[in-house]
Amino acid sequence: MPSITAARDFSLYDLETQFKVKLAIAPEILETWLQQEPVLDETEITALQRIQQHYFNLDRRRPLLKDLVKMVVLSPLLDLAGFYDCDLEIRTEEKVEISLNDQDTIIRGFIDIVIVQEQFWLLAIETKRTQISAKSALPQILFYLINTPNHNRPTYGLVTNGLEFIFLQLPANSSQCERSYTLSLEKEEEIGQVLRVLKYLRSQLPQYC
Q1: How far is residue 115's CA from residue 139's CA, in Å, rounded to a whole number?
Q2: How many Å separate Cα 202 from the centre of its chain?
Q3: Closest among 27, 129, 32, 123 to 81, alpha carbons compared
Q4: Cβ neighbours for 40, distance < 8 A, ≥ 6 positions apart
Q5: CA-CA distance, 35 to 171, in Å (whole number)?
Q6: DSSP state of 104
Q7: Which phi and psi angles does 26 have, rounded to 5°?
Q8: CA distances from residue 70 to 46, 48, 58, 147, 209 in whole angstroms, order as listed
Q9: What angle do helix axes 138-146 and 12-19 make, rounded to 10 degrees?
Q10: How many angstroms separate the Cα of 34 from the Cα of each of 14, 79, 97, 192?
Q11: How many beta carbons lie within 10 A of that of residue 90, not counting itself?
Q12: Residue whose C-alpha is closest to residue 155's, from 103, 75, 105, 96
């Protein structure tokens, strides 16, 4: 019987050595995306302020657990970005499983949220509770991105703990994944950038949105 290894137990080094994939900080990807997305209007800015207020109000009682991060921060952002208005499928706890060493080892994980158009993954999202750094989820989300069903188009990722946000981009047919610097919900300009990037990613499927 093959042994089961959880995707969350992998490190970036494990992925580099076993899958020959690398993750590099690429500040220019945010700049490129933001140049293509207009500045936010007053309604959107007000909505972001409400998300911030809700987060801070709950966090002063106790750090947000994973489900609250999804409910209070992530879901409103996806709504503002227009993902719920598109002809897209949103799946939760999507299983990703691959075999290594002639079936002796199975690596298994579950993506928190994946936004799909037909069999194309547009955006894979991994969330953590507030007490855990968003960076800790980078190996996990990278494992999911390199196992996308369609390698002929770029796939994007996001990791967040409600306070921190890191975006990733895996170009088509590439083993070099790029990531942004960490953005913070505490900074008005940066949470605005988070929304603008999400709106840009949603616009990558204009015929469906």
Answers
A1: 19
A2: 13
A3: 123
A4: 48, 192, 195, 196
A5: 19
A6: T
A7: -135, 85
A8: 20, 15, 13, 23, 23
A9: 20
A10: 32, 19, 34, 10
A11: 14
A12: 96
The secondary structure of residue 143, as a DSSP letter, is: H
Tens-digit pLDDT string for the chain (209 aa) = 667 778 888 899 988 888 889 999 998 999 999 999 899 999 999 999 999 999 999 999 999 999 999 999 999 999 999 998 877 888 998 888 777 665 577 888 898 999 887 767 888 898 989 989 999 999 999 999 988 888 888 999 999 999 999 999 999 888 899 999 999 999 999 999 999 999 999 988 655 55
Q: How far apart are CA 57 and CA 51, in angstroms?
A: 10
Domains defined for the chain, CATH in brackets: 3-208 (3.90.1570)
